[in-house]
Write a structure and sequence with these properties.
This protein is of the alpha/beta class. The chain contains twelve helices and 13 strands. The strands form four sheets. A five-stranded mixed sheet has the order 1-7-6-4-5, sandwiched between helices. The protein has a four-stranded mixed sheet with strand order 8-13-12-11, sandwiched between helices. A two-stranded antiparallel sheet has the order 2-3. Strand 4, helix 5 and strand 5 form a beta-alpha-beta unit. The structure holds oxa(dethia)-CoA (UT7). The site of oxa(dethia)-CoA has 19 residues, from helix 3, helix 7, helix 9 and strand 12.
Length: 342
């Protein structure tokens, strides 16, 4: 059978409405685990401070020979297996990352040959911690329009290599990992009902990497000043995070004609346990309905939502028909909410 692709598919589908679904989900974390006690030996911090202020107990750290695309490839292969599709059937690869292999080419392009997707379109999406929700939304539009059938969305982060191991205000928070979803019209689960995306670049300097781009090209001085690492004003971010995520959720619920009580599960970006508790309160969702695994992974940016999602599927918490809210917030600033019916 000849597979139609791109605009050919678009023309062939006529006026038919195509519903995008998550037909496969896979995750990967590197083997090595680093505990709070390990950080106590490296910077002026304590297990008590980290747990009280963030909820984090441990995080995974990539091996020296691993790069972001490797983490993404592991997760992508599992997502393809879960969706029961071959590389041949993937039409597009999107990689959401804030810790790319290189600035040029994209991490998606580094991943592509490792996945046997040579020749297929591939690009990166830069939306920091909101990358997975942005990616699912973009993929959903390609599927809905009929242009592509199977879109692979990967959230992959190797944050321990872009953070300053001497800056205690950020290093204890971050971890490495990857998650991937196949978005397609196939199957009877994972229907994407809608999403709301937002960004506000006026707050760009609350979480950024100052040097290494055209704004501040790399020099000996930028390296000496440690400007090639993430810089975060966590306290200011904290205050905006809950408000933005709650507002995006409110807008989404209104658009879908749903109420807060209709949400069965909240799967938020895992940035800070206290942010998640405040969000649950604001959304009037009981804490048991919030999927939380920050204790074991820390903040893995674009990978954190799929890591929590896969866990709640595997342990049987999520049942068929459940309404699942994915909600995130991160550098950019970017934030968004996306609703799924499982
Ligand atoms: O991924 C999405 C984007 N990121 C976020 O949304 C992160 C949001 N922000 C946060 O999660 C929190 O603001 C942090 C966990 C980053 C910080 O918690 P906080 O309660 O806001 O602490 P703070 O920044 O106000 O710092 C309180 C104190 C300071 O000491 P002084 O000035 O009170 O003496 C810090 O120097 O804690 C100190 N501190 C630490 N102490 C021990 C900062 N980092 C550490 C540390 N260990 N690792």
């Amino acid at each position: 059978m000849v597979r139609l692709e791109g605009w050919e598919r678009l023309r062939a589908k006529g006026g038919k409405v195509i519903e995008p679904r998550i037909s496969g989900l896979g995750v990967y974390v590197p083997e090595k685990v680093m505990t709070n006690a390990d950080w106590e030996r490296l910077v002026d911090t304590s297990d008590e401070w980290i747990i009280q202020r963030t909820g984090i107990r441990e995080r995974h750290v990539a091996a020296p020979e691993e790069v972001t695309s490797d983490l993404g490839v592991h997760a992508a292969k599992k997502a393809m297996d879960d969706a029961r599709i071959t590389a041949e059937e993937v039409d597009l690869l999107i990689c959401a990352t804030a810790s790319p292999d290189t600035l040029l080419p994209s991490t998606a392009c580094w991943m592509q040959p490792k996945l046997g997707l040579e020749g297929k379109p591939a690009f990166d999406l830069s939306a920091a911690c909101s990358g997975f929700i942005y990616g699912l939304t973009v993929a959903g539009q390609f599927v809905r329009s009929g242009m592509y059938e199977n879109v692979l969305v990967v959230g992959a982060e190797l944050l321990t290599r872009v953070m300053d191991w001497q800056d205690r205000s950020i290093c204890v928070l971050l971890g490495d990992g990857a998650g991937a979803a196949v978005v397609s019209p196939q199957g009877d689960r994972g229907r994407i009902l809608g999403s709301k995306l937002h960004a506000d670049g006026t707050y760009g300097e609350l979480l950024w990497m100052p040097a290494g781009g055209t704004r501040m090209p790399a020099t000996i001085e930028t390296v000496e000043k440690r400007l090639h690492y993430y810089l975060m004003r966590g306290n200011e971010l904290f205050k905006i995070a809950v408000k933005c995520m709650a507002e995006a959720t409110g807008e989404l619920l209104q658009e879908l004609g749903m109420a807060n009580e209709d949400i069965d599960w909240v799967i938020p970006h895992q940035a800070n346990m206290r942010i998640l508790q405040a969000l649950a309160k604001r959304l009037r969702v009981s804490w048991e309905r919030v999927v939380v695994n920050i204790q074991r992974y820390g903040n893995t940016s674009a990978a954190s939502i799929p890591l929590a999602f896969r866990e709640a599927l595997d342990d049987g918490r999520i049942k068929k028909g459940d309404k699942i809210l994915l909600v995130s917030f991160g550098g950019g600033l970017t934030w968004g909410a996306l609703m799924i019916e499982w």
